[in-house]
Amino acid sequence: MNVLIIGGGGREHALAAKIVESPQCDKLFIAPGNPGTAKVGENVNLDSKDVPKIVEFCNFNKIKLVVVGPEQPLVDGLADELRDNHIAVFGPGKDGAQIEGDKAFSKQMMFGYKIPTADFVRFKRENHDAALEYLNMKEYPVVIKATGLAAGKGVLICENFEEAKKALSDIFVDSIFGVSGDAVVIEEFLKGEEASIFVITDGKDYQILPASQDHKRIGDNDTGKNTGGMGAYAPAPVMSSMALQCVDMEIIQPTMEALWDKEIDYRGCIYIGLMITKDGPKVIEYNCRFGDPETQVVLPLLEGDFLELLKSAAYGKLNKECCVYKTGTAICVVASAGGYPDAYEKGDEISGLETVEDDSIYVYHAGTKAENEKIVTNGGRVLGVTAIIKDNDIKLCKTKAYEAISKINFKGIHFRKDISDKAFNKTPFI
Questions:
Q1: Domains in the chain and their CATH numbers?
Q2: Considering 74, 127, 161, 388, which has the largest number of Cβ atoms within 10 A of its Cβ?
Q3: 89 vs 65: CA distance, rounded Å
């Protein structure tokens, strides 16, 4: 079968590398792709907003499955448009994508179905003064989130009232998140350890993939600004078997029930960001797609036919036996451009790529492009250097990942030195 992936980042490179392993995959296209995806499929120049062109491409190339990587096309309704044209899609429609595109919607859904999460209050831009009054009465820290999409950067943790006041001004007055910041949710700060879960669903049945742990802050020891993610590892030891059972019963099952009750036919991936607290797992956020860089560590650990898993979900009859996790560890370290997540330069040559890839190392391209027969930087998060081993030795896996990334260089390269350290000698919360 012929497959089209929408997107051009590290997540899409990881999806492409896994999908192409399937014996069912005859030809793989990635739109727009990147120099990494060009090695495993054919990059095509399609704009995710140009639905007629995508439909025309799918019909001409006999595409049997479209996999939508990023959140924005899903929130915009691309999956609906393609399904209306009888093209199978892995990814929810616009109604399902609300779980990420509208944080107030997802929080209200959680409260309505007694899904454990942080307490919250929602304020619109015109209620700026009321929000300030509310913040002046709160205990700190608090979390302020733009309700719309903000490329993974719309979450601000405020340690005191002055920080919260500035955050509101940045969002409501300076519009740092544009229309995505027309409203905010102000949440209690949850204490514990984060974990991420991917749930693959056909709208009725579902399969849980191995838990991972992202590292959002730009600096070691979780310091500095939030980013799209500076690295991840899987499986995450904090997600004990008891914690996973709790997540399944108290979070995933009622989430599926809520979507069903709202008549949302959700066919795709539900990303659940969790905080494992002393009181049990609680939901931080939902995403309507695979996470980045979590995808880069979860997918390499799966055995079997990943394309069959996605296809069966898209076609409404999930095949839960075709692709499973048995053993192994993966660690992804993100190499970012100097200055990221603020202003950064592009166009710097990347050296050392040819020296690192082997059976245990995979370099996922995120912000790169080919220029004059060279690979150059073209984004804030440039590469995801991922080590994959067959056993559960996290320290060995970390050593391999950092040995590999030390061989790569470009002007201003930055990466955290502590990816996966939280896993060492970890005692699960529950």
A1: 2-84 (3.40.50.20), 119-188 (3.30.1490.20), 193-423 (3.30.470.20)
A2: 74
A3: 6
Q: How many whole angstroms separate alpha carbon 53 and alpha carbon 59?
A: 10
Cα distance between residue 401 and residue 159, in whole Å: 33
Q: Which of 278, 193, 201, 189 is nearest to 233 (CA)?
A: 193
Kindly report the pTM of this predicted structure. 0.92
Q: Which long-range contacts (CB under 8 A, 24 or more apart) does 54-58 make?
A: 54/4, 54/6, 54/78, 54/82, 55/81, 55/82, 55/85, 55/87, 57/4, 57/29, 57/31, 58/4, 58/82, 58/85, 58/87
Asked if 392 contacts 327 with a C-beta cutoff of 8 angstroms, the reply is yes
| CA atoms of 122 and 285, how far apart (whole Å) | 15
Give the closest residue to 288 by CA, choosing from 63, 80, 12, 73: 73
Q: Convert the pLDDT of each residue in 206-259 to its tens digit.
A: 999 999 999 999 999 999 988 999 999 999 999 999 999 999 999 999 999 999
Q: CA-CA distance, 235 to 297, in Å (whole number)?
A: 8
- Residues 375, 349: Cα–Cα separation, whole Å: 6
Cα distance from N-terminal residue to C-terminal residue, the chain: 44
| C-alpha to C-alpha distance for 394 and 152, rounded to whole angstroms | 26
Q: Is the pLDDT of residue 63 over 90?
A: yes
CA distances from residue 41 to 34, 62, 152, 308 in whole angstroms, order as listed: 10, 16, 27, 18
Helical ranges in 218-345 per DSSP H? 241-247, 253-261, 295-298, 306-314
| Token pair for 355 | 């020296």
Collapse the DSSP code of 315 into the 3-class scheme (helix H, G, I; strand E, B; otherwise coil) and give the result. Answer: coil
